[in-house]
Write a structure and sequence with these properties.
It contains 6 helices and 3 strands; from the N terminus they run αβββααααα. It is mainly alpha-helical. α3 packs antiparallel against α4 and α4 packs antiparallel against α5 (117-128).
Length: 222
């Protein structure tokens, strides 16, 4: 069950499902692996682009939708959309179970369970173990805290790694920029030198042309 959307339900449910399915001892036949069904009760919409009260997920071929195996199954009950329960959902009283989880008082719980022996038994069991609820909640909260803390630590570690990578890329870009500036300076200097040499060459050519004209004039006068 999860009340607050911590954006990790898909990974969390898959983790529980796979750990439960991996039940074989060394040397046992894989055919002895028993089917595993994970049922999640969420008080939020799992996928923002898809709304459904009771959903079933299996391993499928993405093209033909052929079921790969019936031994792994994920089911999600969206407690925030009980109003979308289908006639089939109501036939199996899944909506009543959902309302039971959403109930806030014992009177409301008893009213929902009335007439259904299974629900009444569940309500009675819930009432009997309610005295230990605080302890269970504390243990659960502690376990969730540690999981959440590990998630945060991993996120911080990933962020630090990304930051170091960005810093490295920035340093590399800075170095490349410096190399480009140096190259540009060299090209500018080379261009200036070539321009100076060109000017000198033009001056020399002009002097030679002037000298040729002077000599022609001198020969013509003789």
């Amino acid at each position: 069950m999860q009340v607050v959307n911590e954006l990790n339900w898909t990974d969390r449910s898959l983790s529980y499902l796979c750990r439960t399915f991996d039940q074989l001892y060394s040397g046992q036949s894989y055919l002895l692996a028993l089917p595993v069904i994970h049922i999640g009760f969420l008080d939020f919409q799992l996928f923002s682009d898809y709304t459904e009260f009771y959903a079933t997920y299996k391993l499928l071929n993405v093209k033909s939708h052929k079921v790969f195996s019936d031994k792994l199954c994920l089911r999600v009950v969206d407690l925030s959309h009980i109003d979308l329960a289908t006639e089939e959902d109501k036939l199996f009283e899944i909506d009543r179970w959902a309302k039971l989880f959403k109930a806030t008082t014992w009177e409301e719980i008893k009213m929902i369970a009335e007439g259904n022996e299974t629900l009444m038994q569940a309500t009675q069991a819930l009432f009997e173990c309610n005295t230990d609820e605080l302890i269970r909640q504390q243990c659960y909260a502690r376990e969730e805290y540690y999981k959440y803390q590990r998630t945060i630590d991993k996120a911080l570690k990933d962020t630090a790694a990304e930051r170091d990578q960005l810093a490295e890329e920035k340093a590399q870009l800075t170095e490349e920029k410096a190399q480009l500036l140096t190259r540009n300076t060299l090209l500018t200097t080379k261009y200036s030198q070539l321009s100076t040499e060109k000017a000198k060459a033009m001056e020399t050519i002009q002097k030679q042309e002037d000298e040729i004209l002077r000599l022609k004039a001198l020969l013509a006068s003789k």
